[in-house]
Amino acid sequence: MDERPTNPDRELVEAVLRGVPGAFERLVRTYQGLCWHIVYRMVRHPEDARELCQETFLRVHQCLHQYRYESALKSWIGQVAYSIALRHLQRKRIPLVEPDAGDDAPSPLENLGDGFDLERAFGDAQAAHRLHAAVDALPPVQRTVLTLYHLEEASIPEIAAITGLASGTIKSHLFRARLRLRAVLEGRLGVAV
Q1: Reported pTM
Q2: N or C: which end of the chain has fewer CB within 10 A?
Q3: Quick one: three-class SS letters along 130-187?
Q4: What is the CATH number of the domain that holds 52?
Q5: 36 falls within a domain
């Protein structure tokens, strides 16, 4: 009797590769939220995001045989979505980060615990509306990193696997995004966060 622990990623991938009816649809259902969060936060246009999500899953279907189980399937699919959204923004010549936020700039903060509680900020409906508008106003990479970290609950290493960014760069983007969000909530609403 085989007593090896089962790996849901491996089982799903192998089912898709074998052509098991419904397997690819199950993969799409499982990861469509992740794909949408990444792509929509990058491009911010619903029609473009829908097309890019379709392109993502088409690419996943075409390249699934290349998946080597070295990272979680979530990270691999996220990386495909991020790459497709990134190429879309580059084709449209949309800046990916703030002009002064170079990826190689050293971040003085290694600790993400800067006291900003994103969930508490969502408590008030007006604050939530302002927060959503402020998140939408962030540069694409900051929006995406913030979404992955707070909404998808991805770890820094998972975000690094998806985006290809260094951990310090991710932490810097998170810190800068939180500073901007804090300024919006404190400045416009008088909410101390």
Answers
A1: 0.68
A2: N
A3: HHHHHHHHCCHHHHHHHHHHHCCCCCHHHHHHHHCCCHHHHHHHHHHHHHHHHHHHHH
A4: 1.10.1740.10
A5: yes
